Amino acid sequence: MKVVKLHESRSHEWLVFGRDEERPSKIIDTNQYMIKTTNHAIMLDPGGIELFSAMLAAVVHHVPINQITHLFASHQDPDIISSLGLWDKTLPHAELYAPWLWEGFLRHFGCNSIRYNPLPDEGKSIRLDEVELQFIPAHYMHSSGNFSVYDPQAKILMSGDIGAALLPDNAPLFVEDFDAHVDKMRLFHQRWMPSNRAKKDWVRRVRQLEIEYLAPQHGAIFKGRDVQRFLDWLDELEVGTGVSAR
């Protein structure tokens, strides 16, 4: 599993874990993120059950296991959080931040020791040492209860499935040719994002943020001017195309 540092400052670090060459062939590739502060660490969308051993081995190279005090799940999909039951045994004193809507579903993955902190629809902020993290509503993008995570110090938005692309295993971790990358995103967003109204609302919220990296849960990370290019592209894209016109 590849590990890349997105941000490093006196107060905290951002790490992305992905491009796991040993994952099963029919398992979609995912990006997992970890924010490490002075005394804490939070894992964002820590991955599916099949990635648990690879993730655990990678994470402990960067942080003591007892420093991982928080987890975040943007929504309920198994590719981002079906490992919860194993993290529950590994991190019994940790807390999970996830949408209130999905608590009854996420507990099916196993959540006996980890404390579930339900996120209200309007979102909220938390502090880990000197670092503020904002949970930004992203409902119906594509889940009916869904959040992005914004770090105003690092200027990073972890966007979940928004911005996702289906790429080959050897693809670069960062978007290098935006125009070519669009073809890897279009069908995913048109079919998995059901609501143009919800899409417009998310884009409006995010345009108010200062973002250097837009980091999705699948595919490649947008940086610099490609962040605004992505928002412009998404704003104009017609979504919800799985419903046939009659």
Automatic annotation (TrEMBL):
Identification of the protein by name: Flavoprotein
Lineage: superkingdom: Bacteria
Any Pfam family: ODP
Signal sequence bounds: none
CDD domains: flavodiiron_proteins_MBL-fold (cd07709)
Domain Metallo-beta-lactamase stretches: 29-218
SMART domains membership: Lactamase_B
